[in-house]
Amino acid sequence: MHFRSGSVVGLMFAAALSLPAQTASNPIHLTVDLTEAPRKILHAHMTIPVSPGPLTLLYPKWIPGEHMADGPIDNLAGLFIRTLNGQQLSWVRDDVNMYAIHLTVPEGVSELDVKDDFLATAGATGFSAGASTSANLAMLSWNELVLYPEGHKDDADIYVEPAVVLPQGWQYGTALQPAPMARACEPSGCPVVFTTVSLERLIDSPLLTGKYFVEIPLATEVTPKHFLDIAADGPEDLKLTPETINGYSNLVRETGALYQSRHYESYHFLVTASDQVAHFGLEHHQSSDDRVPERTFVDDNLLLLSADLLPHEFTHSWNGKYRRPAGLATGNYEDPMKGNLLWVYEGLTDYLGNVLAARSHIETAAQYRDYLAATAAWLDYRPGRTWRDLQDTATAAQILYLYGDSSPWDNWRRNTDYYSEGDLVWLDVDTTIRKLTNEKKSLNDFLASFEGLGGNTPPKVVPYTFEDVVKGLNDVVAYDWAGFLKERLTSKSPHAPLSGIENGGYKLVFTDTPNDITQARITTMGMTEEWWSIGINVSSDGHIEDVLVGSAADQAKLGPGMQIVAVNGRQFSGQLLSDAIRDSNGNSNPISLIVVNTGVYKVLSLDYHDGLRYPHLERVEGTPDRLDDILKGMTEAPKS
Length: 640
Fold this sequence. Notes:
With about 650 residues, the protein is an alpha+beta fold. It has three domains: about 1-200, Immunoglobulin-like (Sandwich); about 340-510, Neutral Protease Domain 2 (Neutral Protease, domain 2, Orthogonal Bundle), CATH 1.10.390.10; about 535-610, Pdz3 Domain. Strands 1, 2, 4, 7, 11, 13 and 14 form a seven-stranded mixed beta sheet that branches. The chain is about 25% helix and about 25% strand.
């Protein structure tokens, strides 16, 4: 709690006087009007119980799962605070905490009438969590419009009765439950009213709505119930095949077998299939906000590239929401979060999301191995690891999230590597357990006890520390797990940890043919991926997305943002560049490029002679096939 002046005793007394009683029977009433969502403006109306005297209203700052203080208060507009009889009250923003506003509640006033708007203008590129809209759909994240009184240490102690007004004919999906009795209609339309929940549960329960919407029950024999809710910009993007639906039903079954528990009352996959909103995923206890390109469910390449998204965010219901690092379990939206264990929160989830995609037949085992090969090779070509260790990428997450994996010079900066390198670390853990126990135990045993602690429960948070992770692993098999993990977290080796792949019975190799994952990226993104040969990725018009430090492209002084206009004297095309790299094998002549850099043209020479290089996993004969065993579905009958 922040105060700007006055004695400590006096301020504590003032805070106690103004602390409102937001209980389940006396909640904040919040109605969000989405009828103008197609115009990218959302309207909120709140009635907030208060007491006379000084009052500070807060806007959520640290949103769980986003790992940085990015509550989008810059898009909050039109804030008016009045008494119920219409008296407008003045307010002032705190000059240190931009997420707090101060005002004085007049004598005799027990409720405030508050209105504000959210400008949902985030673009369709980059990481932009929260409210996103198009002409035919909207994703509502309640934290972007709600204000609440300061003075509660735990935001689970604040209660809100939420409601939403939808555009005519739009349907919706959410983990919130409709209220048994609706309150009176707002002037703008009759709202859908939901049961009163804590502020924590509200912000943890986004709402997806759209004109073109479908809700598909999954694994209907499983309790609690699971639903796949999809909103798209057109009906043609909602045509899921039975095989696709069956894969997600398998995911429900496989998670039950793996975690031996469920920590929710029902679960909704909220999927936005649109090119008009940012593409990412955000986890919640009882739902996930998953955003994919508009043709994902009708395009095999896009579906393959999104194979791990829903399994990843679903796994977070156990690993991240229920079991949460102590530094991220702050209990409120104002206290800073500490990300030092994000290599468990996100790294373990990244590993499991990909494994579950294969176990559920959302992708094939061969496609998983292609993904793993591309990930391992990408991480092995990360010179930034020589100065920044994996632990620092987690600790510094709140500043590194500003950059994407494809940002310029990312291989030297090294940002949120705890996601993808988590795949390698936890594969190493998994194969080591199997090796130590002669294949009798695996990471599955750790997950059943660690994530399934307490059995089936309603949504709640059970924090853990590094020592808890080590103890959980030692409960499966005794080993120096603390040393094992710290070595991988603090290493500044120039190469990625590949022992999990090797213990799994495979090795990383390179050929002149892209694997399925790399080819899917090339096809869908129009990129020329020559990262493992000359050290650049190039867009279809010749713009260089990034340059690998130490590569032939780096030595030739190419840089991100430059545009290749000619290859060996001919106008650039991706195919022409690939052909030149292929022909370099055994050829002593350099590759000649004409590039333009902010209006200045240069001729540069690439001294490269090793041909095309793309990553693959190759089976090592005579070694245990642990990786293949890891990918076997736990709910499948063993093959005779």
